[in-house]
Amino acid sequence: MRKETAGGTHTNLNDALKQREHLLSAVAYSAKALLSSGDWGAQIDEILRQLGEASDSSRVYVFQHEREGDKLLTTLAYEWCAPGISAQIQNPDVKRLEIGAVGFQRWIDLMSKGELIHGDVENFPADEQDFLKMQEIKSLVVIPFFVSGRWWGFIGFDQCVRVREWSSAELGALQAAASMLGSAIERRDSEVLMEIQFNELQKTNHELDFFVYSVSHDLRAPLLSILGLINIAEKENISKSQHEYFSMIKRSVNKLDNFIKEILDYSRNSRIKPQNERIEFSKLIDDICTRLIPADAMHLFKVTYNISDAVEFYSDKKRLDIIFNNLMSNALKFRDANKSQSLISIDIESNNSGCKIIFEDNGIGIEEHHLQNIFNMFYRATESATGSGLGLYITREVVNKLGGSINVESVYGEFTRFICRIPNQKPKNSESGKNYS
Ligand code: ADP
User: Average pLDDT in the 212-226 region?
Assistant: First the structure.
């Protein structure tokens, strides 16, 4: 039998160098293919072909392990064969093969420790030879690889035509290819896992949103009937103290109803896409004032607004309503009773790219150390606050959904100013578009 050593004394040195170069470029190809594609499975056939041709092998293959209790079963999962070499991929003997039980315990012992096995089959233990010769293998190299620290399988290179030996440089290059395959599988596995987790998270999120929405929605109906019944009862001939009790109940029910409304706003904001329409700021503000300032408290407040809307402004009206509603109700809630009049001023300036809203009041103000937290969920900056601490959190979520930003400035005891920027979603073909610079 003729023996060859690539790069050895029996072959031409030039041929050996060329073959090594060829092998290195096949390994480089494998690295590139495995790194650039997230899906190693789609690349593996071509990688095996390139490695097989470059290493002058008859057959290149990947065995994949599975564990069943203590048993290690291995299956021929991918294969490339040189022309004229019999393929083994359909061979039932190499499917879920318990290699430990068919004389290959030595392979398990060595490869599970990361060691490769190579050489002339004639020099292998007799048990191994029978099985290998059935597949016409004369010499081989098998290299284990690991995924997340676990022995995943091995890649093998058979030579069926002649006996060949492998130089350490060649073995090193093939080992590099094997470990790159392990890394590519690991990366793909974690991507798939992340995708599954992401989908599950999204599903849970949707379900949670829907749950919050339905519960909040259903809770409002009985609250509104309690309020209705109290209104009727108050018209009855009742004592002063009963009147007081009823107004206390009403206050609590209203507070609960406001809380539920806030949760509904939050839920709607996360579920529903923005719907853009032309915004008339003055109407929006007038409506909110009418809704929020009770007639008997009108004299306490002076609301002024200055709107310079030379261009049409488009955004989501319901969301803008939530923003103004929260800012206005805070300005009313946190008025400074020591000042002769509570002033609320709103300045709005819009252009083609967006609008800037400055919402200012001369209320109690916010202490400096609270400023960075007031947009946090359930954060309240004063002991006296009766709200839930959700309003500004929702406001910021809504502003974010519109693609804008909101900031606060305040001097405790003097004023609070919110500065909000929201992009203009005016359609490109809008009539007044021609006027824009
Ligand atoms: P709340 O439901 O308590 O009003 P918000 O999230 O709307 O919750 O506001 C958070 C905290 O920020 C409030 O508890 C209050 O202390 C402070 N705050 C918000 N707006 C103003 C304002 N215009 N003037 C003074 N303090 C304010």
Answer: 88
* 319 Cβ contact list (under 8 Å, min separation 6): 269, 274, 398, 401, 402
**pLDDT bracket for residue 381 (50, 70, 90):** confident
User: How far apart are the two ends of the chain, measured CA to CA in Å?
Assistant: 87
Q: What are phi and psi of 361, to 5 degrees?
A: -135, 160
0.85 surpassed by pTM: no
Averaged pLDDT score across all residues of the chain: 89
**What's residue 436's pLDDT?**
31
> What does the pLDDT look like over 150-170, one tens digit per residue?
999 999 999 999 998 888 888
Instruction: Tell me the C-alpha distance between 324 and 315, whole Å.
Output: 13
pLDDT value of residue 376: 95
CA of 388 to the centre of ligand 1 (A): 9
Structure tokens belonging to residue 310: 């030379």
Q: Is the CB of 331 under 6 A from ligand 1?
A: yes
Q: How far is the CA of 387 from the centre of ligand 1 (A)?
A: 8
Q: Which residue has the tokens 């809203």?
A: 357
Residue 14 — φ and ψ, nearest 5°? -65, -45
Is beta strand 3-5 parallel, antiparallel or unpaired with respect to 163-165? parallel
380 touches ligand 1 (CB under 6 Å): yes
- Ligand 1 lined by 389 (C-beta under 6 Å): yes
| 428 confidence band (pLDDT: 50, 70, 90) | confident
| Nearest CA-CA partner of 120 in 137, 135, 103, 102 | 137
